[in-house]
Design brief:
The chain is mainly alpha-helical and 177 residues long. The chain has a domain at 13-128: Serine Threonine Protein Phosphatase 5, Tetratricopeptide repeat (Alpha Horseshoe). The chain has helices at 25-36, 45-58, 62-74, 93-107, 111-123, 132-154, 157-176, and strands at 2-4, 11-13, 82-85, 88-90. A hairpin with a 6-residue loop joins strand 1 and strand 2 (11-13).
Length: 177
């Protein structure tokens, strides 16, 4: 499930997307780098590389974060790996990595690439869940992000408003069905 917080395009999932530890960043980074150097077939590999990307993102090192998230995408991870809590059904590494890359490009003010990766998150790496509510919420938030980024790229606010309206009313119709 994804809930919207702050700006109309900002995605904040109800499970914690931030770095899953409190305390020693240096030690955690060392451990993740060690896991990253292991075989890509290890179940911990995509989690470690994804967390390295989040760490670089947190430190505003966006190009390096993008490189880590791209590594996750290229590794073809098991997106249906069970999540860490009841609110995270599956890990969705590919979808989450594409969204994080989109956010990095947005921070770098490269809205065209941000839009490209947001669309990849929607079409090529769709969010996977057996929970209909989670799936609808994730798709709604991503469609809203795509509408915002489209407005930034094409400078046509009416298209973004139309896209958000269509997304919202389509989502409402699905909820009442």
């Amino acid at each position: 499930m994804i809930i919207l917080v702050g700006k109309p395009y900002q995605l904040t999932p109800c499970w914690k997307l931030e770095i899953p530890f409190a305390g020693d960043l240096g030690n955690a980074e060392k451990n993740w780098i060690e896991v990253r150097s292991s075989a890509r077939t290890s179940p911990a590999w995509p989690k470690a590389v994804y967390n390295l990307g989040l760490l670089e993102m947190k430190q505003a090192n966006y190009p390096k974060a993008i490189a880590y998230f791209n590594e996750v995408l290229q590794s073809d991870p098991n997106d249906k790996e069970p999540g860490g809590s009841i609110m995270q059904v599956y890990r969705n590494y590919s979808n989450r990595s594409a969204i994080q890359i989109s956010m990095c490009y947005e921070k770098l003010a490269d809205y065209r690439e941000a839009l490209h990766y947001a669309r990849l998150a929607k079409n090529r790496y769709p969010y996977v869940s057996w929970c209909g509510t989670c799936l609808q919420s994730a798709n709604f938030a991503l469609n809203k992000r795509i509408a915002y980024l489209s407005m930034c790229v094409y400078r046509m606010p009416f298209l973004a408003v139309a896209g958000i309206a269509v997304t919202f009313f389509g989502w409402k119709r699905l909820r009442t069905a």
